[in-house]
Amino acid sequence: MGSADVESGTRSRTRRAILGAAAEVLAQDRAATLAEIAKAAQVGRSTLHRYFPDRDVLVQAAIADAYLVIQQSIQDAAVGDGPPLEGLRRLVAALVGTGERMLFLYGDPRVLDGFDAGDESDSVAQMVTDLIRRGQAEGVFDPTVSVEWIQDALWALVYTGCDSASRGVLPRHGVAASVIRMLENGIRAQT
């Protein structure tokens, strides 16, 4: 591995650290300063500026990065493989794993204003829709409610689980199991 490869790898790691820290900090405080983001990323402010010349550029890059991380988590969950319930469980675990990025993107509806997700996002969204339809066809998911409603409930529960973990209401390691339980059982106590 040449020095250019090492630099490239280091630059990539630093960039990812800054973007991850930006999502985490901005999820908690939308008005956070570049200094606060640099501190969370464990880089100097001058380093942050070498990657992102101003706050707007950083925020737009953090939005794009968070969106891609969430999209990749859906793809990695392989929701089309195996029984629908197993696919749903993998999907929930994958989405919960995006935690702070989920909170950053969806905590304020204005964050995605003007963001162009591109054509690939349609195919990723279709994976989730297909999973739900397949689950309904196989009698695993309630066929009397719309696919859109199930999808909305899924996203809302994942978001709420991530938010509960960030506030200390749920332990991070318990979020996926709690979301899955709610999705599978609702709020009714089982007898």
Structure description:
With 191 residues, this protein is mostly helical. The protein has one domain (3-185): Tetracycline Repressor, domain 2 (Orthogonal Bundle). It is built from nine helices and no strands. It has helices spanning 3-28, 34-41, 45-51, 55-76, 84-96, 99-106, 120-137, 147-166, 175-185. The longest helix has 26 residues, at 3-28. The termini are far apart. The model has no long low-confidence stretch (mean pLDDT 90).
In short:
The chain has 191 residues and is an all-alpha fold. The protein has helices spanning 3-28, 34-41, 45-51, 55-76, 84-96, 99-106, 120-137, 147-166, 175-185. The chain is built from nine helices and no strands.
Shape: elongated
What is the count of distinct domains? Answer: 1
Write the H/E string, N to C: HHHHHHHHH
Q: State the name of the first-level CATH class.
A: Mainly Alpha
What is the fold-level CATH name, i.e. the topology?
A: Tetracycline Repressor, domain 2
Overall mean pLDDT stands at: 90
**Can you identify the CATH superfamily?**
Tetracycline Repressor, domain 2
How far apart are the first and last residues' alpha carbons, in Å? Answer: 61 Å
CATH architecture: Orthogonal Bundle
How many strand units? Answer: 0
Strand content: under 5%
Could you say which structural class the secondary elements and strand pairing correspond to? Answer: mainly alpha
Instruction: Give Rg in angstroms.
Output: 19 Å
Largest sheet: none
Helix content: 55-70%
SS element count, helices? 9
